[in-house]
## 1
Amino acid sequence: MTLNSALKLDTVSPHRSLIFCAIGAVAGLAIAGFGLFTSSGTRTSMVPAQDVAVVNGVPILMTDYVSNIQSTYQVPLSQATAKQKKDMLETMIREELYVQRGIELGLPTDSTEVRSALVTGVESMQTTDVISMPVSDQELQAWYQAHMAQYNTEGTMRADDYVTPDLATAEAGVQALRAGRPVPAGLKKSLLFADGNEFYFAAQIHLGPELFKAAAPLKNSEVSTPVKTADGYHVLVMVLNDPPVAQPFDSIRDRVLQDVNEAKSNHLMKSAGAFLRKRADVLIAKGFE
Amino acid sequence: MKRLLIWSAAGIVLAGVAASAWLWNENRFAVMAMRADPAQLPANTALFEHLTREGRGIFQKDCAVCHGANAKGDRVKGTADLTDDDYLYGEGELAQTEQTILYGIRSGDPKGWNLAYMPAFGTANPYGPYKLDPLTPGEIDNLAAYLSEASKTSTSSQTHGVPPSPAALSPAAQAGYALYDSKGCWDCHAADRGGDGAIGAPNLVDKVWLYGTGSKADIAHTLTEGRKGQMPAFFRKLTARQVRAVSAYVYSLQSHKKVSGS
């Protein structure tokens, strides 16, 4: 008697087929039910290789565990004691449990700090996503061309500043300076630019808006006309004026990349806000629309 | 017909067994690779080489666009040379590389490196997080002269600065030497000019430059405009295993590190 004939597999039996189908269906339903209706049924039976633990299905990354041990105990994983490893793991499990408990208790709804942290976290995630997308050189060049003026150098200047209380002395001083003669006695040299060249932003603060407006267009060695300010009449002799100039792309490529990413990030946040608003069911009390 | 069915069934079972064996081996490898202390991985030659081979392909796809196919970096883009023994953050350990890949540098991820950036001392507000005074063009010029001369003549190691004696410097560089202390550069770059790996402040007196060539003009540009480079966080783009593989590959590029038997 062969195995086939003993099991009667060499004959077709509808009755046996039905029994096997029924057994399979019952087994399948039992497995599905166990999985659907029990927490242990949905539990991952093994901890994935990249995790050190799984807490209610949420993984704790091995890399974070190793990093925390290093930063807390100043030793690599292999040199940490059993107690240190256990303590760190317990700390991280406790943190995860409390996070999950906080969500269950509705802390994202009730606690201001949690809400702020969540908003910041979502915004950070949007920034992270933007920065993780490579930006082509063409895109950077296009941005640079469209915003070239904001990448100009600052500009530097140094001038001799003479001041007098009366206009006649100032005008005489202008004539003398332009002719290369000594300045009149009443025209005093101020202490501006005593430290040498200054960037335009600093010169603007030190000169004040009227004087800076007069100084900016002066060429090297040029003498200004008298400029009236609160402390008298000023005559400027430009020593060195290096106005802002465009910077070559390669020298400010990193700034352009930052600005492109920042613009994308802001755009993404705005779009995300609009998307969330659109798909949300928001009801506003009457009179507060 | 029956014979065909039997052979087909046998084939399917064999294929299933082979697939299971492969999956089991992959999982065993994954467990060995992921559960090991990263610091000990290079000592396990077979495992490390397997990871390195995996990491090479991922590097070419995701990292070479910034760091170059040869991982030598780019001094225009300000991306680091990953093959040398100079590290902006940490000491180049495998676990540290993993953290940097996962969470980035000034990437927006709160776990990323984000403690400081180089202020733009040629602007009205050099540093966003708190008030810093700008420098004058003359001060920037002197500091640049100092740092350019110091890096050319110093004998510092990659982790400790050994600035040359001021007497050996030009007058402008001597003025810059004094400015380094009086203007607070030591706060980030350390009193010995050796930098600080905890915040990504580079060693200023070695011969390694992230931007430019270490010329006075390049240094003056950095002092004036500041630097705020970014590295993306790959936490959501790469799996933990891929990150470990890339980290192993980067580690293997650094010939000064002992890969096996250490």
## 2
Amino acid sequence: MTIPVFIGYAYFGILPYIKGFYYSFFKWTGYTQVMNFVGLENFKRLAGDTNFFNALYNNAAIFLISTLVTFVLALFFAVVITRSRFTESLLYRITYFFPYVMPTAAIAILWRFIFNPSVGILNGLLTLLKLDFWTHAWLGEKATVLGAVTAPIIWGSLGFFMVLFISGIQGIPATLYEAAQIDGAGEFQQFTRITFPLLWEIMRTMIVFFISGSIACFALVRVMAGLTNPAAEVLGTYMYKHAFQYTDFGYGTAVGVFIFILTLALALIMRRLTRKELVEY
Amino acid sequence: MYGKRSPFRVSPARLAAPILLRIPLLIYFLMVAFPLVWMVYSSLKTSVEFRANPVALPQGFYYLNYQTAWENGNIGRYFLNTIFVDTITLGLLMFFTATTSYVLARFRFWGGRFLETIYMGSLLLPGIVALIPIFLQIRSLGLINTYLGLIIMLVVSSLPFSIFLMLGFFRTIPRDFEEAAYIDGCSYFRAFAQIMLPMAKIGLVTVLIFNFINVWSDYSLSLVLISDSAKRTIQLGLAFLVEVPKVRTDMGALFAGLTMVTIPIMAIYIIFQNKIVESLTAGGLKI
């Protein structure tokens, strides 16, 4: 029984990736039978394409900021919740986690409304607080678009990582903290010497996990900002545009290949860079 | 915990800490809860109320929004489409997952580890890269814009994670039960159906919930594989609605649509929240 399932999976699930590499070497509209083998031409074109680099730059900015903010805040909240034993902690866990299971398209639409200049709550609240001068056309202005797109990404993942870290911290024996306290260590020291090192392994893996998820923020950007805004162009939308709007499938898959290699490379680099001696207890 | 049994001098920092620390927690709590609450109560507003003050509470319960969304906005049809696609997808998915995980968990056979590695490895692949080739492949099979094509791809893309979860569950069940059954002359199939499955019921339900969330939320695959506006699934349908100029101005209806799209997930989350969180994070820690 397993064999047919696996064969089906391999055909529909793995083969596309391999084919993707294959197609990137062609120039093809996808609707005719004509496929011209152009070798690396697609890639050379990629290297000289300013729009591509624009998308790459945007993607990088989104990626860096979202990763940083998500992990720092998730860690902060996790530590605060576990160490302080607030009674309402369960409430925080339940609410913070929810956005992670919310459909991506729904998140995008919701935030699109939040950022809407006339009916959105962001501007609405600012006006209420008499902070009118801070209102913007968040998704329309070049300066604010990237930030606007990054916010839902953080919103959607923070809770998940926080809960993950909480479980990790709860796995650390309490005796360690007690011993440290007796030795006169303050909360901050306890964090840097006990919590952080022991959480490090989990963090490394989670960063890699987050990477492969966030480079490809196609759905979110597409629904929030559409495909026509160059300030909100990311690799995923760029790939989609070239394949499905300009019907240049060869080029589109070349972008896809780039995304693939980039994700892999980043993951590997992160694993190497963050290699530290394993702290055992 | 603070300052009571401590042999150290109680500093002002110790006393202020609980209050200060609660501030960021509460801020983020509002940032999560408020948009969701806003989404729900906004769906009950009229367009006039919207223009007046986006933040205010609705004056009455303008249920008409839901009807507008359901009929004019076609959300009704999209809803039904999605339920149709999802039911079949989930049925197939659970069947494939259960059988594959069972075999992988229990039997050591040549190629077993290989299969497992492939499934687990594919969890790390960026799904978006496969969008174009998937489109091309499905098209070459003539399945573009059909429900069958979408169902196949949904099953395929959810399979690795599903198997990952299921394997974990199966592995926690001691083998003794089946061994006792084999001694009594039970066949593999019967052992699977009558012993393993009932014991793994919790696991099966959890995996089912996950898969439902993933399949209900799907946007990218539907976007690429469905072009007929009548066949759209609900996420896709709503996303397109938001861009249609005529509908754009009827914010109430749009919010009603948004709420309808999110409510099933919200309901499931509230009921099963504990299990969901546990399973997702346990998987993350195991690595």
